[in-house]
């Protein structure tokens, strides 16, 4: 394994890095996907006609905040060698505001939206920061595998948080309690697991970046503008970022609205939805782990194209599913594709980003993902509202993003992009 890692990197540090994926996956799995989303629509917003749109709008606003600040935070982290300090801050912020969702009782719309927006902001920012450590740990030829290890362990973390929540929900429902009693406690469970599981990362992961010249917020923005202005020197990275916006729009819609789709179209209960997401997390973990190895063998571009084709098939199956049996099949195909495509995208950026500006370029990747997180769910929310609650049509419309992403992937060459990143870094060092 040591031949896959950068000099001086030990196995336990890679494990500590991957544990952050384990830790933060509980947030997306329980809060965004399986439990709180459906609870928000049915209980907090009282099943109003605008409830799904309000959910997507709140998340979109949060992603817009991440999108606006991600390049600046990345440039600041590069300049001050402070990825680790910022990771501490974002972790504590996400954990704290997730715990605050405990007070999101039926009708507490303002509190629920406020805690959701802020917790998701800290989550998204931390996701960018942890990704920027990847090229410091893995050699270029092993980026796919190491990224896949993290993503697969992340889905295991989602299973742990979701399983703990399901155990509590089953117990309370047996005692005759409803969602207003068990969902708030599930938020506390998720926050506690996030905090405990992130400790190996926060305590063992090394900050290898050396502080550069001190820079103010103004100079950080100038560096970001400089980088954006020179993206024409990195055409493959530029095109891949466009591709990321498109296909991630579809992925983020699926993540954000899976529980709502299951409950509205197939009338899944909370327990059924959790069981569905538990199984999907298992297939996603397998997809991330196995496909990380496949990606390093067949190439980054081919691997991503294969997963996008899988996403298109998944949307068609879910759209035409006459009953929940075909929906279960499509959901598990989504899990395989999700694990593979999320891991592959992160590894691709690690290959195409200039070495000395990893945090900044992962910030740009975060900007692309968060822009997608606005476009995808908002498209679905608006389509469901316009079609008077036709979630099948909303899914089909949103699925067109995968077709557009596959089209944008044409022309991206990983090897050429990696050489361009090296040249860019040499020019920047000589400037």
Could you report the average pLDDT, rounded to the nearest whole number? 86
Known CATH architecture: Up-down Bundle
Category by helix and strand content: mainly alpha
- CATH class bucket: Mainly Alpha
Which strand-content bin applies to the residues?
under 5%
Helix content: over 70%
Query: According to CATH, what is the topology?
Result: Growth Hormone, Chain: A
CATH superfamily: MFS general substrate transporter like domains
Tally of individual domains: 1
Q: What attributes does this structure have?
A:
Growth Hormone, Chain: A, 16 helices, 0% strand, mainly alpha, 82% helix
Summed up, what is this model?
The protein is mostly helical and 431 residues long. The chain has helices at residues 11-34, 36-44, 51-80, 83-100, 109-131, 134-137, 143-174, 179-204, 217-229, 235-265, 270-298, 300-320, 324-352, 358-386, 391-409, 414-430.
Give the SSE map.
Elements: H1 11-34, H2 36-44, H3 51-80, H4 83-100, H5 109-131, H6 134-137, H7 143-174, H8 179-204, H9 217-229, H10 235-265, H11 270-298, H12 300-320, H13 324-352, H14 358-386, H15 391-409, H16 414-430
Helix pairs in contact: 1-7, 1-8, 1-10, 1-11, 3-5, 3-9, 3-14, 4-5, 4-8, 5-14, 7-8, 7-11, 7-13, 10-13, 10-14, 10-15, 11-12, 11-13, 12-13, 12-15, 14-15
